[in-house]
Amino acid sequence: MVRPDVIRKRLEKLDEYLAILRQLQRYSCDEFVANPERYGSAKRFLQLAIDSLNDVGNHVVAEAGLGTVDWYSDIPHRLREAGLIDSSQEETWIRMIGLRNILVHDYLKIDRTIVFRVLQENLGDLEGFKQVFAQFL
């Protein structure tokens, strides 16, 4: 059974991370990319925000008996199959997971302007997923 207390705690952490990320939105691109503290902070809190989303999703998948999760990308897939998100949301979430993996593992030299653009344009996606999980509270 999906536990509202687990969902609530994870969503509260997501709110905390989003508040920090919103503060970082106030900088211009030049101010952001030139300052390693701002950039490093954004990287870390974007990763933590996506991890929070993955944790909430994984909890729902596991507790609602929606299938197995071997990879992070299985989470949005299972939720779409269950009708909890649509295919557009699934694709968005999978892109977030890809960003998270790049941020964590630093596979490639990350272009700071891309992180800035994500910060400016995509925090609403995380907000949207909060609404998906609010139904379990």
From TrEMBL:
InterPro entries: HepT-like, HepT-like_sf, Type_VII_TA_RNase. SUPFAM superfamilies: Nucleotidyltransferase substrate binding subunit/domain. GO terms for cellular component: toxin-antitoxin complex. Keywords: Hydrolase, Nuclease, Toxin-antitoxin system. It comes from the Bacteria. The keyword Protein biosynthesis does not apply. One of its GO terms (molecular function) is hydrolase activity. Belongs to the HepT RNase toxin family. NCBIfam families: HepT_toxin. This is DUF86 domain-containing protein. It comes from Roseiflexus castenholzii (strain DSM 13941 / HLO8).
